[in-house]
Amino acid sequence: MDTVSVVFSLPEGSDLESELLIYELGGLGYEGFVEENEKIEAYIIADQFNKQHLEALLQQERFKRLFVVSIKEHKEQNWNALWEASYSDVIINNRCRVRAPFHEVRPDIEFDLLIEPRMSFGTAHHETTHLMIGLLLELQLTDRSLVDMGCGTAVLAILGRKLGAFPVYAIDNDEWAVDNARDNVQLNNTGDISVIAGDARQLAHIRTDFLLANINRNILLQDMSAYWESINKGGTMILSGFFEEDLGLINDKCVGLGLIFTKHLVRNQWCAAVFNKP
After folding, report:
1. pLDDT tens, 160-201?
2. Separation of alpha carbons 109 and 124, rounded Å
């Protein structure tokens, strides 16, 4: 399958713009990203490339400083070799590694997670997944139930299971993500994770000690009541997918439901927050 690569030039000091660009391009179907020397090279299947969608994206005020350097078409074999060579693993807190099948095993890492890097969100390259993994590593999960809401690749559910959580549920409303999640739980020998296609309505049938939701601000606010209903007393909710400037909105919604704010972490202006249910 042929692919198209689009190279974007980034102005100096544009970390936030690059994160936003990758996030938005992912929504347009771009599958792989290489960042180097103040440039981002993004890849998409040729049949899905739409120049008008790209131009509309760059017309947004927050991307006005970016511009396209080149657009090239690649044959399948060239794309695969280039992408695998540039796709790096991610190590968090020296305890958890998220890697693709073509990376070599690192036996010195406590939690070595194998994730097929397809179109699903959650390869740990994004700041929010990185933050969520860091917070998960701090928890005592043995024999505690866990829900990964909007699971994407199911990387958080997989780590939770390896940390001892059970039962574990991974829920997503995107068919591609659900298929990817099911493959990944098998790759990591965590096949007893329940991967469910659906949205927050699925929580009506689940009660959990830990609920993870790395989605976006509007969905978090919309579904917060369903999250609250699903969490057991004494349980914990970890949220991400929003910027630090939106923490006030998230906190107000959670506190209004009776949750207690515990802590938050920030990485390049992206935020993750922890709440407890008394």
Report:
1. 999 999 999 999 988 888 998 999 999 999 999 999 999 999
2. 16
